[in-house]
Amino acid sequence: MGQKIGTEKAEAVFRQYADMIYRVALHHLDDPADADDILQEVCLILLTRKIPEEEDHLKSWLIRVTINKCRDLSRSFWKRNRRGIDDYEHLEAEKPPEIMAELQSLPKNYRSIIYLYYYEEYTVSEIATILRMNVNTVKSGLRRARDQLKKLLTETE
Amino acid sequence: MKTNAYTVAIDHIHVSPSAIEAALAAAKLRASKTASSQAKVRYAAIAASVVLAGAASAAYFGSIAGFDLPTKPSPAASPSIGSTEAVKETEHTKGTESRSTAKAETAPHPAEPTEQAESAAETREAEPQSATDTDGMGAPAPTDSAASITETSVPDSMITPSEPSKPTPTEASPLPEVDSSQLCADGKLYIALAQTGLSQIDDPEAFSDDHLYYIETKFGRYYKIQPPKLNPPVPSWIDQPKSDQTVYLYNSDGEIVGEAPVWW
């Protein structure tokens, strides 16, 4: 593993990857407020833990940490038992683009795979490493996600 | 990168600069808190006064929101917000002697988060001592703020109950005089105790839209509160009763601007 970096360096890294962390979290949690929370959690880890030195490794490590934090949050008692404020009908949340709305109807793992494959342009084997999945699982997940997304988008047209 | 509808949509997702700053500030604060016991003392000093402020705001909040204040299993008496005795009674009703708020008048050390409510009770009666202690820990600014909170006044409409159902100050714990502008550096933050007893923010219009605010429980979790989400008055993050909690309210600079014990 790498080294613990200073606050300034951690800040710089955080600012550089904040959008990516947020997007990964948003894909996984489908809740902007929770994604913001994850942003903070990851920032805390950057400030307090040893991090990889290599840029590429750092990026995939951050994605890994973000997804782990998202899973922690998803499993938490709090998350499983709370009712989101957005559930209140009279509070209109900002509507995401249509394709994002459809994407959010996919299972969490599929969403992350789609994001990493299409946006971050990781290969299937890299995604498998990041998500700690079997390569074939990623492949089939990617295929199913595509099919499902295609079906969803067709239905909405 | 291949451009398609998906990547275009993702490209439009950005974290706002204020969210980044807020996350950084809160994370730094959390990182420093684990290493600094002095900080805890400073937080306690600030929180001590803000608890009182929150209590006063609760009356105000209750009066404008028109809902009942915290209810207890025992119908014998309704607690006055900010009343140490009322808190004690609630805790005893629940059979949880270890709850921090029940020990407000006797516990000497404010360092633990669960004991910060104690500090509140002590500050009510002995503000100068609290200020001296805090100075000794090298944090004069928060103490000044804490002192000023308890010494300033609030408009009558903020603290005077106007309906029979609202709590009334007891002789043991009169509602403190509070200038709510002291609660936050920019003078835009109000704290209230909601129906469930958890402190929350009221008056969304008083918030600046480009700031985020955080709540921390004693378990270390921070909850972000966005100004647009403050209405209706009972937000989502309070629906899981957790007694024995103290919540802290942070502004986007990572400064504690409020604290209140939770009782359910």
Features:
heterodimer; A: 157 residues; mainly alpha; Rna Polymerase Sigma Factor, Chain: A; Arc Repressor Mutant, subunit A; 2 domains; two-stranded antiparallel ribbon; 8 helices; 73% helix; 3% strand; globular; B: 264 residues; alpha+beta; 4-stranded antiparallel beta sheet; two-stranded antiparallel sheet; 39% helix; 10% strand
What's this model, at a glance?
The complex is a heterodimer of chains A (157) and B (264). Chain A contains 8 helices and 2 strands.
Structure description:
Helix content of chain A is 73%, strand content 3%. The longest helix of chain A has 23 residues, at 7-29. A two-stranded antiparallel ribbon of chain A has the order 1-2. In chain A, helix 7 packs across helix 8. Chain A has helices spanning 7-29, 32-48, 55-75, 77-81, 98-103, 108-119, 124-131, 135-156, and strands at 3-4, 50-51. Chain A is mostly helical and 157 residues long. The model of chain A is unreliable at 88-93 (pLDDT under 50). Chain B has one domain. Chain B has a four-stranded antiparallel beta sheet. The chains are: A mainly alpha (157), B alpha+beta (264). The interface between A and B is large, with 43 and 38 residues.
